[in-house]
Amino acid sequence: MSDIKTEGKVPTAREGSHSSREEGGHTHIADGVVAKIAGMAAREIGGVYAMGGGAARAVGAVRDVVTRGTDAGSSPSRGVSVEVGERQAAVDIDLVVEYGSAIQDLAAAVRRNVSQAVERMTGLEVTEININVDDIHLPDEDEDHSDSGPRVQ
Q1: Which of 27, 29, 70, 81 is the most buried (most CB within 10 A)?
Q2: Domain ranges, residue 61
Q3: Which helix H or strand E contains 125, and what residues bound it?
Q4: Entry's PANTHER family (predicted)?
Q5: CATH of the domain at 98
Q6: Whole-angstrom Cα distance, residue 147 to residue 153?
């Protein structure tokens, strides 16, 4: 009989008394990995327009123009910073929200989704998720006003 479990659930760090030293070796999860997971999970929530503060978005826009968008969009970890310990992680997220979104409900949904994704994929317990709403995207900001012609003749 095999001792392989057919259960589809991945054990988390909180189940039992796991340490970072596992049977057969040590697993280290880099901060950047957790930041990418958190960034992707935050973007999945409707009402999140962009990630990162003004400076991060400006630098990203310049990078996208210079690289001609070859990196298939913005970095998944833009606007996310994390602290990763042996069994826990703390996440800070900078967001731009869509106008009309209920910010408190949006923040709660982002926290829930990020926490579930990080804990499921890494086994790390998420101790806190701090969300900073840097800006709100207005519907008319997408319109391109350069086609309107000269204002004076």
Answers
A1: 29
A2: 28-138
A3: strand 125-137
A4: ALKALINE SHOCK PROTEIN 23 (PTHR34297:SF3), HYPOTHETICAL CYTOSOLIC PROTEIN-RELATED (PTHR34297)
A5: 3.30.70.1350
A6: 16
117, 132 contact by CB (below 8 A): no
Q: Is the pLDDT of residue 6 over 60?
A: no
Quote the CA–CA distance of 146 and 128 in Å, as a whole number: 43
| Number of domains forming the structure of the chain | 1
Give me the torsion for CA of 56, 94, 77, 42, rounded to 10°: -140
For the segment 113-135, what is each residue's pLDDT rounded down to a tens digit? 999 999 999 999 999 999 999 99
Q: Is residue 90 part of a domain?
A: yes
Q: How many CB atoms lie within 10 A of CB 79?
A: 27
Q: Is residue 103 a part of any domain in this protein? A: yes
How far, in Å, CA of 118 to CA of 36, rounded?
Answer: 10
Residue type at 25?
G
Integer Cα distance of 45 and 130 in angstroms:
16
Residue 77 has pLDDT above 80, yes or no: yes
**Is residue 8 situated within a structural domain?**
no
